[in-house]
Structure prediction request, 327 residues.
Amino acid sequence: MFKALVLNQADGNTTADIRQLETSDLPAGEVLVNIAYSSLNYKDGLAVTGTGKIIRSFPMVPGIDFAGTVAESASERFQPGDHVILTGWGVGEQHWGGYAQQARVKADWLVAMPAGLDARKAMIIGTAGFTAMLCVMALEEAGVKPESGKVLVTGAAGGVGSVAVLLLAQRGYHVVAVTGRPESHAFLTNLGAKEFISRETMSQPARPLETQRWAGAVDVVGGDILARVIAEMNYGGAVAACGLANSFKLNTTVMPFILRNVSLRGVDSVSCPLERRTRAWECLAAELPESAYHDIGQTIALEAVPQAAQDIVAGRIQGRVLVDLSQ
Prediction:
């Protein structure tokens, strides 16, 4: 028997209950993992609260990422005792996920734990940190360098944003953070942010072209803020877009793209190929300072996930939230 958070739906309302399950209850997969930690991401918040149409079949164990130890394996890639990480692939949405003490998944969905990480550290990073690393990689591949100019991070106090601030600062970029919470300035300064802009300022409707301000940007919110970011990009600048916390809509024009050679690079962490996944995790293991695992994270038990899910959807969460499955 093991503990799991199980979502069900009745009369259009999503319920979240802690239940005891058996290994035989798990869906099919090649590898059985004993989960040590998961994390809370914005998408998890939408799923657990039923705010977004993340879950379409019930019952469902949510949790879009986890880290743990292989218990059983029918794959040559993994042996019992191997330490592994899972992010994406529809786990926690279409396939039972990380808010349980066990999971059974496809071998191709797993990444071997890189040297320098353990399950706790990996899930303090989690899907949010992994996505942030992919965004940084996308900007660098687009030619954005520290000497190119200032780099903007929207939603900077959240999971993706806070890790993006830290990673960019570690690589020598001048990071400007966008946040609607002035109380988060000290937190973000500690991570490496040099300047701040309010969410309200960046939410103002933009003209097709605004004054050039940013060599690069990591955007997690979409909507009017992303439209303004694009209008304010330097000539040859690049935006890595990975989220829609504000809106999935984008009201912009072609002018920044054809007059300033701006590029908008979409960043997907769900179906990212294994080779790129592995490289991103290796970079995270090598680059994040030890202090990051104390500065960015808080830890909760599985029983606290429903309330934390409400908090993250309401914008009351700062940094990363680690879910300890050992409790």
